[in-house]
UniProtKB/TrEMBL annotation:
GO terms for molecular function: 2-dehydropantoate 2-reductase activity; NADP binding. This is 2-dehydropantoate 2-reductase. It comes from Halopenitus persicus. It catalyses: (R)-pantoate + NAD(+) = 2-dehydropantoate + NADH + H(+); (R)-pantoate + NADP(+) = 2-dehydropantoate + NADPH + H(+). It comes from the Archaea. Residues 172-290 form the Ketopantoate reductase C-terminal domain. It holds the Pfam family ApbA_C. Catalyzes the NADPH-dependent reduction of ketopantoate into pantoic acid. Transmembrane segments: none annotated. It is an enzyme of class 1 (oxidoreductase). Keywords: Coenzyme A biosynthesis, NADP, Oxidoreductase. GO terms for cellular component: cytoplasm.
Amino acid sequence: MRILVFGAGSLGSLIGGLLARAHDVTLVGRDPHMRRVREDGLRIEGAIEAHTHPRALTDGTGERADVAIVTTKTYDTDAAARALATGRYETVISLQNGLTEERLLAALDARVLAGTVTYGARLADPGRVECTGTGEVTIGALSGGQDPEAERVAEAFREADVTAGSATDMPRRRFRKLAVNAGINGPTALADVDNAAVAAGPAGAVAREAACEVATVARAEGVDLSNGDAVAAVERVAETTAANHSSMRQDRAAGRRTEVDAIYGAAIDRGETHDVETPTCRTLAALLRAWERERELRSADDAGVGTRGI
Ligand SMILES: NC(=O)C1=CN([C@@H]2O[C@H](COP(=O)(O)OP(=O)(O)OC[C@H]3O[C@@H](n4cnc5c(N)ncnc54)[C@H](OP(=O)(O)O)[C@@H]3O)[C@@H](O)[C@H]2O)C=CC1
Ligand SMILES: CC(C)(CO)C(=O)C(=O)O
């Protein structure tokens, strides 16, 4: 299968690198990482060891493949969609957190499938990605039900020894994952605590409220997700990833933009459409955006000082 991975940072490099064991894979990412992959191949270390040789590009326009997998951060989804729209793909799949598939669907003339992933990845150095935890990839129709293409793609993942399956209940899975991210990511980022703090302790109550709000929005969208299921999913993931720093906590610690819009923004916007109140998600989003605004102002200030210095 010809597969293009758009956004080959941590997750995209891991998934693309693993898929290159059985398929014709092109990574689209940034230099110096892409240059090193072209020169030396991609080294996968940690929970999985492999050395593969995918193609590596920095310009993802005008390409063709059977499947494009989007693994940019959620705030780069529209730019990824614009680039993919200049090429030809039968199927496009997002493995990002948050709800991004509808944006891809709006911009692309391709079948868009939903995906979730529980593998963990960290780009350690140019040309070297660490698999921080094995998991599984699940692919399925965005609106649920059987989709033979989802199974065909999942089978292609399995041919490359990536644990993968297709599912008929992607709407529920997407919202359950959104509930997990809404429950864990904001509280752990803002309180600067490990995921364990959500399993037990004062952050747990906030996490449960956020998860219940997402489940209520899901039901308003016709998706069968109970508050109990959403809360149980948050508690289970917080326990199994107890020592982890959530991705949003890592983004905040590194002074990077967060995925607040695709996680809390998505829940708030869809809630508004259905007259569902999301006060906890709104509070978490407002605090995260306040931090992001401060971060932007600080970097603008730094740039100004730099310019004046010259
Ligand atoms: N890492 C993980 O373990 C997991 C991540 N996820 C989700 O997967 C998504 C990706 O996360 P992660 O891999 O950690 O993020 P990264 O930032 O490591 O990877 C994204 C990469 O895409 C690059 N990129 C963005 N736009 C373009 C473009 N137009 N052309 C070329 N390259 C581009 C970015 O470069 P630059 O930064 O220079 O713009 C970056 O290198 C997120 O939604 C995350 O929540 C889900 C599960 C696990
Ligand atoms: C599942 C969880 C919360 C693990 O930390 C995650 O997806 C993230 O950190 O973004």
